[in-house]
């Protein structure tokens, strides 16, 4: 697909060989489609096993479905009517008058179908059964799925996904959508983080308090007087990192360090009057941001988002994560201090 991935919205078929075969070239009917074939016995085509089920599922999933016909498609259109598959999400494109040159016919039909469905190439999956199908999809730059064994020209690019039967299509789409949802979630979280981070950076610059120090102060606001090791655990930092952070905050007058009255070996840290003053201003600033979002997002959605983020934060705080660069598992999240 295009480098700028979009959510999958449509599937375009070259149905000959994928969804149906012409009667003179068809094999004996399987039991599972004999009943369907009786409905269209007057036509010259045989519906392939799984074709109807896949089209129904795609329609239920909200996909737009495009069907390309290199010539007359009346028989298959009648079959669609008899099987109750005609819907507002179904688009038929054909070249009955042989308007396009044969070598480029599929390319132009795909472009016409995309325009008719009002979708982009990176939102659409193309499904065919021949080398010409993949060539056309490759030229346009679409994700292409091959059904069957028609791709026998090794001189042309081959699709990454070749399945023997149409039944495999839905599973492929489920997995494709899953990966796209994951990518969208990751990009959305990153974009939201960058946006909010820039807002808090303004506050940070105004008061000379780096983000990591603000995070530490928020932890102390909830529980003042904690051991350094406990704060490190709460923030997901190594002890060596938290020690430097604490020393800088002490120099800035934001916190103080005292010996534990019950155990002199343990030092606990507390917010100073200056620290509490900054916390008050930070709370007011956070409230301003919350009120800003409430002008554009429903309170119920914000509450739902808050619960989801709390769960995600809980996972990040307590579970190891996979570091793709080092290919190792670690439970520590280092931040700039």
UniProtKB/TrEMBL annotation:
Gene Ontology MF terms in the entry: DNA-binding transcription factor activity
Annotated PROSITE patterns: HTH_MARR_2
Ranges for domain HTH marR-type: 182-314
InterPro entries for this protein: HAD-like_sf, HAD_2, HAD_sf, HTH_MarR-typ, MarR/SlyA-like, WH-like_DNA-bd_sf, WH_DNA-bd_sf
Alphabetical list of SUPFAM superfamilies matching this protein: HAD-like, Winged helix' DNA-binding domain
GO process terms (BP): response to stress
Protein name: Putative MarR family transcriptional regulator
